[in-house]
Specification:
Layout (H helix, E strand, L loop, with lengths): L2 E10 L9 E6 L4 E6 L5 H15 L5 H22 L7 E7 L2 E7 L3 E6 L2 E4 L6 H8 L7 H6 L16 E5 L6 E5 L1 H4 L4 H9 L4 H14 L6 E10 L1
Antiparallel strand pairs: 1-10, 2-3, 3-4, 4-5, 5-8, 6-7, 6-9, 9-10
Helix pairs in contact: 1-2, 6-7
């Protein structure tokens, strides 16, 4: 039986920045969910996020189409940076329904989670030096070195080396709940709070609003964006 999806999205500027440099796009059917987080608070940040999301939204609905859209975004965002003479870059996380299944594409430190049968899993890896440091034990997780390394991205859209995204084919099941979010959620809302929010028997929009409110209550120190997706019986 084919899985269908119900989804909602939301974003909040928070209290630190004068504008929102996150970009979000959602088409519930067929599912196309995309979040991007611009690097910094300048024109390169805004241009990068908008360019990357628009290209993914127009991509062919396939793994190859996703990879081609990210490659195009790398070229265009890199050109933005050259024209501006400064940084142009963003993270990108997308969940896309295709004839060949549901695909996840990922670059940077935005995240995708899945709640299935009570277990909340992180489906993505943060492409940061902090993640590498945590895996290899270079420094304690809560150390000043780790805090600084969270801002050192190893892969992102606009990187001079034009890295490819992680691509993961997902087998979805009725009852699954997915969360795509920028680090304004992931860094401010604890795992346990995300788990509790996604476990509630309420519509996706209520969960999005709860996550944004939790990020604001934690200080609102970054732009915050979330997409919540419910997998249903077709």
């Amino acid at each position: 039986m084919r899985t269908t999806f119900q989804a909602a999205a939301g974003t909040d500027t928070g209290h630190r920045y004068h504008a929102n440099f996150d970009v979000v796009h959602l088409d519930p059917s067929p599912l196309l969910a995309v979040v991007a987080d611009g690097m910094g608070d300048g024109p390169g940040s805004a241009a990068a996020g908008r360019t990357a999301v628009d290209l993914v939204a127009r991509a062919e609905r396939s793994a190859d189409g996703l990879a081609a859209a990210v490659a195009a975004a790398q070229r265009e965002v890199g050109e933005h940076g050259r024209q501006l003479g400064g940084l142009a870059g963003c993270t990108l996380t997308a969940l896309v329904e295709t004839p060949d299944g549901t695909w996840l594409a990922h670059l940077g430190d935005s995240r995708a989670y899945r709640l299935r049968r009570g277990l909340l899993e992180l489906l993505t890896v943060d492409h940061t030096m902090a993640w590498l440091g945590a895996v290899h034990g270079w420094y304690p997780f809560d150390s000043p070195q780790a805090a600084a390394a969270r801002y050192q991205l190893t892969r992102y859209v606009g990187h001079p080396a034009r890295p490819e995204p992680d691509l993961l084919r997902l087998t979805t099941a009725p009852g699954d709940v997915y969360l795509l979010c920028t680090d304004g959620i992931a860094e401010q809302v604890p795992y346990q709070a995300i788990h509790e929010t996604l476990s509630r028997q309420v519509p996706p929009g209520d969960k999005v609003r709860a996550l944004l409110a939790a990020a604001d209550a934690a200080g609102g120190n970054d732009n915050s964006t979330a997409i919540v997706v419910h997998a249903l019986h077709g």
